[in-house]
Amino acid sequence: MARPTGTTAQANGSSRREIDRRSQLRVSMNAALAEVSGVPDATMRWTLETYVTDIVVGCGVELLGFPPTYTFGNLSITATGLARINHLIALWESGVMHFSRVSDERRCAAAENPLLAAPSPLLADEESTGGRPDIKRRRNRWKTNPLGLPGRYKRKGPKSAAFVSQEVEAAVEAETQRERAEDPLADLSGDEDYQRFSDDSESSVAQLLYSAGATTDVHDPDVLQSTRGTAGTSGKCS
């Protein structure tokens, strides 16, 4: 089986780094929120309703310094791309974006009008239609089955939830972090200095090393990198 090309490997690596950076920001913000609010299990909320109810009113804390040009919402939806998530992390680590205690008057005002406590004027749409609810569900076939007779197989529709909750997403990110901790070499596909090669390229490299009497592992990234040019030109006329 052919291995992923350099472009595919870089794309996968970029996605992994994005997930890691987003998870890093969430963990850091939750820790700061717990410290500022005094609530050990406090967790940042990313919809206006839950943010105002649980964070501003419930914990007496508000988020300051969130970019007004960014949409406030689930980071997996609103903070996509390494450039954007890295910008948020830079603001957070520099202290520009931070949590601060709020007065009782502001808590009451936020409870009356949640928009007053919105971290950004741009808010994500909290309502979504999700996917089609009739996927994998038997539909009415008025031409082929005008009498509405029962089908041969049962089709009850989608089995997964309509939406991915923040709790589920956090659990997936935690699992990803655990797997990466157990297998550090999994990050090699995302290293910009590391490029994967096809089986044909590795075969050419192996032949060159064998003819030279080398005993080096042909899967070693340094060896592949150093012999790439030679392998790529072995079939060309001088």
Q: What would you say this structure looks like, in words?
A:
The chain is mainly alpha-helical. It is 47% helix and 3% strand. It contains 8 helices and 2 strands. A two-stranded antiparallel sheet has the order 1-2. Helix 1 (6-37) runs parallel beside helix 4 (82-94), helix 2 (48-59) runs antiparallel to helix 5 (104-112) and helix 7 crosses helix 8. The radius of gyration is 26 Å and the shape is extended. The two termini are 31 Å apart. Mean pLDDT is 74; it is low at 188-199 and 227-238.
Strand and helix map with partners:
Layout: H1 6-37, H2 48-59, E1 61-64, H3 75-78, H4 82-94, E2 98-101, H5 104-112, H6 166-182, H7 199-211, H8 221-233
Antiparallel strand pairs: 1-2
**Largest sheet entry:** 2 strands, antiparallel
Strand runs, count? 2
* Distinct helical segment count: 8
Helix content: 40-55%
In the predicted model, the low-confidence regions spanning at least 5 consecutive residues are 188-199, 227-238
Based on secondary structure, the structural category is: mainly alpha
DSSP strand content: under 5%
| Distance from first to last alpha carbon | 31 Å
